[in-house]
Specification:
The chain has 276 residues and is an alpha/beta fold. The radius of gyration is 49 Å and the shape is rod-shaped. The protein has helices spanning 2-31, 42-66, 85-92, 104-112, 191-203, 236-252; strands at 76-78, 117-125, 129-136, 139-145, 150-155, 160-161, 171-175, 209-213, 217-221, 227-231, 257-261, 269-272. The chain has a 9-stranded mixed beta sheet, covered by helices on one side.
Amino acid sequence: MFRARSKRRSQRRLGTAYRSYTDGYQDAIGTLQVQRLPVFDMGRFSKLLAGGLLVFFAWSFYLLFSSSTFYVSQVEVQGNVLTNLNEIYAATELEGMSIFWVDPEVVRGRVEALPYVKRAEVQVTLPANVVIAIEERVPQLVWRSNNDNKTWWIDAEGVVLEPRGVLEKALVVCDESVPPLVREAGQRLAPSILASVRELHALLPDLMEMTYTADWGISFKTGEGWPVYLGDERNMELKLTILKALRRQLVEQNTTPRYIDLRFPPDARFQIAIGY
């Protein structure tokens, strides 16, 4: 009997406890309310992010382009001798310009427009460095126009230059043409004229002064003061060989010519000066 009562008591208690848990669970389920979680708006976030990045980059570019660190204040020039540094700097038009707006090709064109600049190379680097390397025109002879009393310098390509200083020990060509052959700087002499001057000077290296006229071409005076007309550069060595023989003959005959014309070798013409 003792065991039977204990068993029923235990079952009754367990049953009571089970029903109480079930009822509580059902009550909780009955009162539970489903709440909707907010959905993340990716499209709106992307727009906000893009707008923020746009503002950031715009502000960064503003600081970059407005900073004095990137503005050109000086230029390094290499290779200039006859061209003044200030002249080159003024030609570049870079004063106060941001390095980001500098076009090397445009600057090169401006520098090469200077009279004594033959070629130029422009290098641009950050933060505001501009290096210009130039090759200048080198004057090789002095061109003196007797008709208008003007003096010019001529480079190896025949380009006429305004004199800058004194060109020591330079070959001088006196132009007696009317009107003068050279009118302004930047003009180019005809290649045949340059060739005539070079050819004659190569054969007579001690000769430092010649004469040019449009009708007679290149000429010079002998040690006796006789004008010798040679025309152009063709057959220059033959002309001088004829001159050497003719000169010896005239000296032996004690004859003084007004001039000697060797433009058309092997013919040699001369005119005797009146009174001799």
